[in-house]
């Protein structure tokens, strides 16, 4: 059976607020939707079972329109939403992956999924100590997202001797205007999305 891959997707209207000084609201929404769509597509192409952990009904409708499976978190926090993905996995391997990784590609996804499928737990750190990717076969897991979550999650996974994946494709996200400028130069699809809405 395919590995369940939970993708937390924030409310589009509230997503990427730290980019508000750099791009207009409609551009932030379009960028958030395209990153989430791309993440789901890459996971499906890699043979996983994408599960959108939707922050609100708008995100749920968006995901269903793209024929993706959805869990509506109904205002719960990220830890509860992630736990829902583990429950959906029903004892099978699972992967939690952030939706705002502009450099994400099929190669790094294949590495994560192959490890989890072999019974290996995996974890990746972000630049600020977060956890953009975590996966295991545990039937229950006490998620601890928030500042410095990588080290907390690493301690929780320690008994399973997790594979730590440090890779730019998992490390780099879009949080600050400076991130956006770098990504715009390096990632063609980001430039295409932004230029289509803001030719200036």
How does this model look, in words?
With 200 residues, this protein is an alpha/beta fold. It has 8 helices and 7 strands. Strand 2, helix 2 (57-65) and strand 3 form a beta-alpha-beta unit. Helix 1 packs antiparallel against helix 8 (188-197) and helix 7 crosses helix 8 (188-197). The mean pLDDT is 90.
Short description:
This protein is of the alpha/beta class and 200 residues long.
* DSSP strand tally: 7
> Which sequence of strands runs across the widest sheet?
3-2-1-4-6-5-7
Largest sheet descriptor = 7 strands, mixed
Tell me the span between the first and last alpha carbons: 47 Å
Roughly what is the average pLDDT, rounded to an integer? 90
User: Residue share in helices?
Assistant: 40-55%
The proportion of residues in beta strands is 5-15%
Uncertain segments are: none
Radius of gyration over C-alpha positions, nearest whole angstrom: 16 Å
Number of helices: 8
Secondary structural class: alpha/beta
Overall shape: it is: globular
How do the SSEs run, as a string of H and E? EHEHEHEHEEHEHHH
Topology diagram in text:
Elements: E1 4-9, H1 25-45, E2 49-54, H2 57-65, E3 69-72, H3 78-89, E4 94-97, H4 106-117, E5 122-124, E6 133-136, H5 149-157, E7 163-164, H6 168-171, H7 177-186, H8 188-197
Helix pairs in contact: 1-8, 7-8
Name the features.
200 residues, alpha/beta, 7-stranded mixed beta sheet
